[in-house]
Amino acid sequence: MKKLFLITSLLLIVSCKGDLAKAEINIPTAQCGMCAMAIEDALTKVDGVKKADVDMDALRVTVAYDIEIVNITSIESAISNAGYQANKISANAEVYKNLPGYCKLPVDR
């Protein structure tokens, strides 16, 4: 019984990493479902990001992340490096240039 308690306690300690936080990031240059998928994909590759949900109606992404591993600036940079504006961080121009036409702003198509 002591071994079972010890193993259970150890598993709980190991699985309890840092505190999770949620942030909403504006993505005003996102245009379509493909943009949403690209942003979510980019964010899931960021160490410490646990979940990312894009709301295309509101043009924002809600991100759940471990504050001990990643910060908002890194999350915004990941979105920018996927080719999209994140809050006040401009899209990476080189990546944006290579996005499909339907993922660009109408003025850039």
Walk me through this protein's architecture.
There is one protein chain. The protein is of the alpha+beta class. The chain has one domain: Alpha-Beta Plaits, CATH 3.30.70. Helix content is 37%, strand content 19%. It has four helices and three strands; from the N terminus they run H-E-H-E-E-H-H. Strands 1-3-2 form a three-stranded antiparallel β-sheet, with helices on one face. It starts with a helix and ends in a 12-residue tail after the last helix. The relative contact order is 0.19.
Strand content: 15-25%
Low-confidence stretches: 2-15
Give the SSE string: HEHEEHH
Number of helices: 4
Q: What is the average per-residue confidence, as pLDDT, rounded to a whole number?
A: 88
Identify the overall geometry.
elongated
Biggest sheet features = 3 strands, antiparallel
Label the CATH architecture: 2-Layer Sandwich
Overall number of structural domains: 1
Distance between the termini: 67 Å
CATH topology: Alpha-Beta Plaits
Which CATH class applies here? Alpha Beta
Radius of gyration: 18 Å
Helix content, binned percent: 25-40%
The secondary structure category is alpha+beta
Strand order of the largest sheet: 1-3-2
The count of DSSP E runs of length 2 or more, i.e. the number of strands, is 3
